[in-house]
């Protein structure tokens, strides 16, 4: 008995001792060096804010000899290295500082993809100012509107945009300097406003600059939406959001970029950061090829062959032009193996045409408000086990999320819909590079922490998202939804169709019925009846459009997308006016 009591006593002492030891250890560990106790426990790793300047600095130090090659608007090819780019970005930073540009000031750019635009991306954001990339394809009133709305202090523009600047300069009284991206000799003799040459601006500046360290949440780049309705809205990206997107987009299941790649962003640097490639290419040390203003099939193929481009990104129209040229000229591609197709849905016909030419089309989805990368269609772990038919269906989808982004689909009333690949609902996004509020807006654009993309989509059990429509383009026939994108894909697969848009037209019985608007290939004699008969067996019978209208050309937005609003205004009453019976 006595022995047991002693043992239990000893155990009690031991437990007390251990408890006290743990308490002492915890209080030491949670003690702040300043002496405060009970603080949160922080990691003790080096802190460096995620700043864009560090991406270029990294490339200049660790990929110093890797080239940036640009086709200039002057017509020639310019070639230098990441090291040279960094030096000139530092000269620009010195020049801007000397001219009184301060953190938070906006500097506008009207420029194609080229080395000087790259220097502006980094030199402007590097000093804490904001690089405001302006889409020159917008209407001139919209361009003047966004320059004034952003309160740009300087605007830098390519020589080829001089006529545009001539038109808008007097509508932009806040702009203090118009800087032409050229050397002194190329400046025009007369111009409605004083001009400065970019080369003169930076030429005499020191080649060293100590990039300031500041809060990674500060703004770096400003980009306005294309604004199909109302005025364009500004999306203000932070250093943190763009840096995280650069890391996320380089991953193997995203764009799979490496130092062995030669990357050619065809998507313009004035449209949502050229899908982040000016940041992710230096991050991995890939060679960068900037194609300037010549984006036709022949010019792209020639540049890609000369420079050994392995990877590129652009909208479907660009790839249609390349395919067309390569077929006509009997060309093949030596190194170019991967084309990111985004901005609008990739017609399955385009993917197979590229495949026949040895180029893999990788479908991607995003938007200005997502900086823009949301999903990329890369194979999931069991892709290889699927049948060829299943793989084809997967490849046609917009893909799986880029790590750092989350998606959901919701039905009417906001209830989340199942990921069954069939239920279509409003697509919502959240993540490290998703917009919170528009520039200058007093309140958040989020609903319960999610951004409503305005797209309608399905998500399958493997997480592959597929856009079925823009919510405003869905055709609502007799209370059911018809996907305009799917009907367009069928039309586009017809060999005599150059481009097709499907819109919902007013209908006395069904509210709306689909009508196809089509541009035929040159020399085609295709009739409406023949094209409608082509739909038999490809879609449900009640989805088959009620009519076809042939037009000589399609109205396009500033970013090369179909302007369905214009088509709806023109043809919205087509069925009522023609009093056609529905199918
Ligand atoms: P923007 O902000 O001008 O880049 O336009 C974004 C919109 O383009 C998205 O909300 C989609 O409606 C559309 N979009 C982008 N990528 C795709 C894609 N791969 N497939 C279908 N639509 C797309």
UniProtKB/TrEMBL annotation:
Gene name tied to this protein: alkK
Similarity comment: family membership: Belongs to the ATP-dependent AMP-binding enzyme family.
Protein name: Medium-chain-fatty-acid--CoA ligase
EC nos: 6.2.1.-
Domain AMP-binding enzyme C-terminal: 486-561
Keywords of this entry: Fatty acid metabolism, Ligase, Lipid metabolism
GO MF assignments: ligase activity
Signal peptide (residue range): none
GO biological process: fatty acid metabolic process
């Amino acid at each position: 008995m006595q022995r047991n009591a002693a043992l239990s006593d000893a155990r009690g002492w031991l437990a007390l001792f251990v408890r006290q030891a743990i308490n002492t250890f915890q209080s030491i560990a949670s003690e702040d060096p300043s002496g405060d106790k009970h603080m949160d426990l922080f990691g003790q790793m080096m802190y460096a804010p995620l700043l864009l300047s560090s991406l270029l600095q990294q490339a200049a130090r660790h990929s110093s000899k890797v080239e940036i090659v640009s086709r200039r608007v002057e017509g020639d090819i310019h070639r230098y290295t990441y090291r040279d780019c960094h030096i000139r970005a530092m000269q620009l930073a010195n020049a801007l500082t000397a001219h009184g540009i301060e953190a938070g000031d906006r500097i506008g750019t009207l420029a194609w993809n080229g080395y000087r635009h790259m220097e502006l991306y980094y030199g402007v954001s590097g000093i804490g100012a904001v690089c405001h990339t302006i889409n020159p394809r917008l209407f001139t009133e919209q361009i003047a509107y966004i320059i004034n709305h952003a309160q740009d202090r300087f605007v830098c523009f390519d020589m080829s945009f001089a006529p545009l600047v001539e038109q808008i300069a007097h509508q932009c009284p806040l702009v203090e300097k118009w800087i032409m991206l050229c050397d002194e000799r190329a400046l025009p003799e007369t111009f409605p406003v004083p001009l400065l040459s970019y080369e003169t601006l930076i030429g005499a500046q020191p080649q060293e600059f100590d990039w300031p360290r500041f809060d990674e949440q500060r703004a770096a780049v400003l980009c306005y939406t294309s604004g199909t309705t109302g005025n364009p809205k500004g999306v203000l990206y932070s250093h943190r959001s763009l840096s995280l997107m650069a890391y996320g987009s380089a991953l193997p299941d995203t764009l799979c970029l490496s130092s062995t790649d030669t990357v050619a962003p065809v998507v313009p640097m004035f449209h949502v950061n050229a899908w982040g490639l000016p940041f992710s290419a230096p991050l991995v040390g890939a060679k960068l090829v900037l194609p300037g203003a010549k984006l036709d099939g022949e010019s792209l193929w020639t540049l890609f062959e000369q420079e050994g481009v392995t990877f590129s990104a652009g909208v479907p129209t660009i790839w249609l032009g390349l395919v067309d040229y390569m077929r006509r000229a009997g060309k093949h591609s030596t190194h170019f193996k991967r084309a990111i197709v985004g901005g609008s849905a990739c017609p399955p016909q385009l993917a197979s045409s590229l495949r026949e030419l040895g180029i893999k089309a990788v479908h991607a989805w995003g938007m200005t408000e997502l900086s823009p990368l949301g999903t990329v269609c890369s194979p999931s772990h069991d892709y290889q086990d699927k049948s060829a038919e299943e793989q084809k269906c997967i490849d046609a989808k917009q893909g799986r999320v880029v790590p750092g982004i989350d998606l959901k689909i919701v039905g009417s009333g906001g209830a989340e819909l199942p990921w069954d690949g069939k239920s279509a609902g409003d697509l919502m996004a959240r993540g490290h590079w998703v917009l919170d509020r528009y520039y200058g807006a007093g309140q958040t654009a989020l609903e319960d922490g999610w951004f409503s993309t305005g797209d309608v989509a399905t998500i399958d059990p493997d997480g592959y998202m597929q856009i079925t429509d823009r919510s405003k383009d869905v055709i609502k026939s007799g209370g059911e939804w018809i996907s305009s994108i799917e009907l367009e894909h069928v039309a586009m697969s017809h060999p005599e169709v150059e481009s097709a848009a499907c819109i919902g037209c007013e209908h006395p019985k069904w509210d709306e019925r689909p009508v196809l608007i089509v541009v035929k290939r040159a020399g085609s004699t295709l009739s409406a009846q023949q094209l409608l008969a082509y739909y038999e067996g490809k879609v449900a019978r009640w989805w088959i459009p009620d009519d076809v209208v042939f037009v000589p050309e399609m109205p396009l937005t500033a970013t090369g997308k179909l302007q369905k609003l214009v088509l709806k205004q023109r043809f919205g009453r087509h069925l009522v006016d023609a009093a056609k019976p529905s199918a």
